[in-house]
Amino acid sequence: MSFVIDINQDQFVDEVIEKSKTVPVIVDFWAPWCGPCKQLTPLLEKVVNKKNGKVILAKVNVDENQEISSQLNIQSIPTVYGFVDGKPIDAFQGAQPESKINAMVDKMIEATPGNEIPKIIEEADQLFTDQKFEESLKLFEGLVAMDPGNSKIIAGMLRCLLQLNKFEEAKEMFESFDDSILKDEEILKIKKLLDKTTVKQTDYSSEEIFDEVIKKPQDKNLRFKLAESYLSENETKKGFDELLILYEKDSNWNDGAAKKKLLEYFDLLGFNDPNVINARKRLSAMMFK
Hints:
This protein is of the alpha/beta class. The protein folds into three domains: 4-111, Glutaredoxin (3-Layer(aba) Sandwich); 117-198, Serine Threonine Protein Phosphatase 5, Tetratricopeptide repeat, CATH 1.25.40; 206-287, Serine Threonine Protein Phosphatase 5, Tetratricopeptide repeat, CATH 1.25.40. The chain has 15 helices and five strands. The longest helix has 17 residues, at 253-269.
């Protein structure tokens, strides 16, 4: 079965409206003279073919099918509609990067009636939040087989690997990714976090710096170094603890460095990370007491 088809307006109801009740359908409105169409259509075909039947691409030449173009109010091309369950749920105009097309396709697949993937992702995310990282990883590994290009699934799997200190496995995954995945915002955050975790950020081990902090508990620079060292060793809770101590002692120290570092890692780790959840509550309590 071909996942990319050319249709005319007489086929639109059967090939788009009806078919989208069982499988998502992307409709590409294009014309032979359209320059941006020549950039966009190959990307659409690439993304759709990677999904191996989970989504269909229907191409409509607007010059030859002006009636359906008028009915859908196509005012410029390329215009792309995403149909799920007989209804358009997403659309865009103009050439787009592959990452945006991937995001739209994933959204359509997740919205398909009877699709169990969103429910399983939710279960895996909850296990992650409950710090059951091995169990969460197993669910995400199963999901990857079901939907290999889904960035939410890939991100969940990578975050589990980082929590389990399986840095080499995470690096191997990154080496296998194509450009479209590497441009995803969430994947980029995880890559930055992995780089920070596997590259030593201080000249001394956290144990050595800790010994110095015990001797000089009022030395804020030293405590900040200890926090950075813990974070680079994936000791997130310990790193957050030191930053919160710093913030509580002097929230304005070094232009608010403790809070800035906390917020940086909150963003990189994601808001369902158990350490982030706990540290955010503690930071809020300090800020608004």
